[in-house]
Amino acid sequence: MKTAYVYMHDYFAGILTETDDGYVFSYDPDYLKSENAEPVSLTLPLLDKTYKSKVLFPFFDGLIPEGWLLDIVKKNWRYEYDIRDRMSLLMVCCKDCIGAVSIQADKKEADEVYK
After folding, report:
1. Which positions fall inside the HipA N-terminal subdomain domain (predicted)?
2. Disulfide-capable partner of 8 in 13, 81, 111, 112 (CB 3.0 to 4.6 Å)?
């Protein structure tokens, strides 16, 4: 089971988890209460519920680089590369994406960065 911490405009927004059955995303309760809260995607509206999917949610999958950019990841990744491991790719490649959303593998480390 892998867990990623999702940030929106540098604020902790929610948790994405890979389970044996697929993927689960839920917003952080404090983020939902914030007056500046925005959904990370129109397909994941701001609701106090758990979203479930058999495959990585298309929004998150779309953040992962493709083509020659993915080849750069392959050359620089220290571990065995597997294009089917979308969650690991997301956590490695999407720490500093273009746009408002970033994905972090370590919440404590991310909280230090996003103070």
Report:
1. 5-103
2. 13
